[in-house]
Structures are given as structure tokens and as C-alpha cells.
Amino acid sequence: MTEARVHKVIDVLSKELNLPKDNIVEQGLRTLLEKKLLEVKAEIFRLCGKYGVKSVEDMDNSYRNGSIEEEDSWRDFQRLDHLEYKKEQLEKLLEEIK
Asked: How many domains does the chain have?
């Protein structure tokens, strides 16, 4: 969607819903961030459940004590690390618009 179309949709929504344009944009951003955060948390939950850990640090400790084989899980470890970083970034953005 082009920027001009976005502004047109926001204008129409503002008039139809009798809401300030800033409010519409803020609500849309919040909803998008919350949806993305939920997706990230679900994937973190899935990966943690797969290895019986609570976090990337916990998974690292499991490598160190030998309860998880690194050979078969290093991609998931990297993915989990990235997802935890992404989760933190999304939470920070949500805090900024609250």
C-alpha cells in the first residue's frame, strides 16, 4: 500500500470512527506489535518445550552439563537466542507507545 493510500485510509477511519488520526495509528501499531510479540512468544515456548528448558541461558547450561547434544540442536539454540532478542525489542517498542 502506498503512503498516499495509507493516509487516505487513516483519514476515512478518522472520520468514520470519530477518532483522532494519531489514535488510529497508535492503536494499529500497538495491535501489530502485540500480534508479533505473541507469535515470537509462541515460538519461544515451542523451542523451550522441545528441549525442556526455560530460556537460551538454560539451554546453554544444558549443553555444558551434557543433557542436550549440541550437534542436533545448535540451529534451534541460535533461533531461540534471536527470538529472545526480538521479544525484548518488541516489548520495548510496546512500552514506548503506551
From this structure: 1
